[in-house]
Amino acid sequence: MKYYLAPLEGITTYIYRRAYHQHFAPMDKYFTPFLVPHTKKGFSTKEKNDVMPEHSPGMNLVPQIMSNQAESFLHTVEKLKVYGYEEVNLNLGCPSKTVVSKGRGSGFLADPDGLDRFLDEIFKKCDVKISIKTRIGKDDPEEFARLLDIYNQYPVEELIIHPRVQKDFYKNQPNLGAFHDAVEESKIPLCYNGDIFTPESYEEMKREFPQVDTFMLGRGILMNPALLDLIRMREKTDVKKTDVKKTTDIDVTEWKKEETSRKMQSADRYKKEIHAFLEQIKCDYLEVGMGEKNTLFKLKELWAYMGQNAPEAKKALKRIRKSQSMADYDSASREALEDFILF
Question: What confidence tier does 241 reach under pLDDT thresholds 50, 70, 90?
């Protein structure tokens, strides 16, 4: 199995990715938040920091580009090649209204003819691998059949599908029927993305799509940075459970006691790891001159996701949201982690 970290604008920066990679199960691929082409010769300082290979040591990093203009896309690819990149990812999935109103991201899906011409030009002229992250349409899942036909015409390295339409944003359930169609009809290697928040939901997707061996994790990792560790632990546990079933002289009650004890020990260990992970992010943002106020904003943004795994820590989470100093934040964060649910 292969696992990817989804790009989320303003959140999964090089500082977040680096801290994650050092503290948790490494991803097979990491993707930068989208780069929007511009006329400058080089990248802005922010963009440069995010794509510099030395800022992502030991990681397989793929820059993501958002554009509906072939010339601009190709110009950005040339700038990325300077840094040694051999693969880029085209963003056709962002549902943001400001992006969609410009015909970019998932807004580009509303113009299949224009998208076809765009892909034709970039694949003719580009000498690096191009993968695509897409939704299944802008307004209606019925749009996906035409889009998939278009994708199948080109040597796409990989097709990462979030099976929602743009207007869904992140509401409603992923359209698994559309992804089944992709499994049946796609000529391109597929990656599933969408609503994998727990090891159980990952297992459900594995059962639903046994042919798929690549999964992208996004909001689930933001909610629980240890999610991939727990998924891999679950896979090892399932093997052991199978062994237990085959062995008649093992006391199942004792097995369950051992399993509960293991989970408790793992929970304590991962809480400490999450604390160290957050500390590294805090220190790294301060070290690059982000300042306490802006660093607090970044940490609060992370807790807006992580807080969903700490429903009993309402007072601590409120203190995090209202904290005006790092000392206040540190105290509230430690308290919230005590009630953080891993399993």
Answer: very low
